[in-house]
Amino acid sequence: MKKYLEILKKCPLFFNIEDDDLLRMLGCLGAKVELFDKKYTIFAEGTPAKYIGIVLSGSAQILRVDYYGNRSILSSIAPSEVFAEAFACSEIGSIPVTVIANEPSEIMLIDCSHILHTCSNNCGFHQQLIFNLMRDLASKTIMFHQKIEITSKRSTREKLMSYLALQAKLARSNSFDIPFDRQELADYLEVDRSGLSAEISKLRNEGIIENRKKHFVLL
Asked: What is this structure's pTM?
């Protein structure tokens, strides 16, 4: 696990935990690392909600697919970020979404029960771990409400500009990259791809944005 130490130190789940304690903690938690090729399913909808995932390399996406096969991207997950923690902590029977590897990825999996229930070793860092988990869940709740605010806009233009404004705020710059290609952005905003492309072209022509692939500039 030592080779993953630097990326794990950036993970919000392990905030304020010393390196030596972190390595011991991973053994105590029974953490395991699995490799997933591009587009392979990490968690399938309907599987038991048991594990918390951490992206060590590559990236992943959380998807919701409706009865008719329409896909909506709920979020994109980058290295050091945590996913599926809300489902695992809630102890619901199964996961209501699908998580896929967006590219070849290394994923750390931790059984959530090992976090929520202290072990017989009485590890001193366990309380910090639980505190970090609760703070991470609170942060994810805020992100979820931000997505609702974006997708609740009436028009494709309003949804797009709301999303781009949020990304500019997060980047602290009017020039930034987004984690989605055009189809993925349409899936995230829950709009038609052709309509989204037309709107991006209009905004460029109106001098409101500049755009090249995943890079945007708000003018």
From this structure: 0.83
